[in-house]
Amino acid sequence: MVALKIPPALVIMQILAIDLGTDIVPALALGAERAEVGTMQQPPRKKSQPLLDRSLLLRAYGFLGLLEAALAMAAFFLVWWSYGYDLAELQAVTPSILSRSADAATIAIYTQAITMTLASVVASQTGNVFACRSERGSILPLGFFSNRQIWLGIAIEWVLVLLIINNASLRSIFSTAPLAPWQWLVLLVCPPIVLGAEELRKVVFHGKFISKQSR
Fold first, then answer.
1. For the chain, which domains are there?
2. pTM value?
3. What is the tens place of the pLDDT at every residue in 133-183?
4. Contact 116, 79 (CB under 8 A)
5. Number of Cα atoms under 13 Å in the Cβ half of residue 70
6. pLDDT tens digit string along 39-78?
7. Which residue, among 150, 179, 171, 161, has the nearest Cα to 17 in the 3D structure?
8. Crossing angle (nearest 10°) for helices 104-131 and 148-166
9. DSSP state of 4
10. Is 167 helix (H, G, I), strand (E, B) or coil?
């Protein structure tokens, strides 16, 4: 944000809503996931190897994290673009937004933009939770409904998002605004993009394991 000289795409309360609310329940559902097929055929973990090793950190932050961040920023800019703002025009109104001296129309657009960012993060998490069901194998042999707790977690997180966006009292707390129908439709592309990208990564780096698992 600082490098681009634009206002924050998320405010503090929205970040807390993600970290302490929407992100937790689907993550807990992963604890009910069965052990991966072929786990016993993998070599034993070395005693000196940490649980959070380099490959896991690169996958989480260098790949999936960057992809989700890119989708979130695309959603943020998409709202501004839909109102006729390009990057230069957004940069021009940033000082007034940060100083809270912008006019009501600009604040309304900004509030909708950060709401879209929040919703896109949660939508990306929906794809990510399926991507994380297996470290090496494809989601296809596992099936989308073999862990029903995940669907319960997804339902709960989206109920929270809908309340944050549509309840007047919560909107004032979390600085959100209602989204237009076309914006909700745009969010539908986030889960398959995240899951599809991770599936492709697994094919590239763990193709042999996937082929054994799918037999």
1. 12-32+53-213 (1.20.1110.10)
2. 0.85
3. 877 778 887 888 888 888 988 999 999 999 999 999 999 999 999 999 999
4. yes
5. 10
6. 656 677 776 766 666 777 788 888 888 999 999 999 999 9
7. 161
8. 180
9. T
10. coil
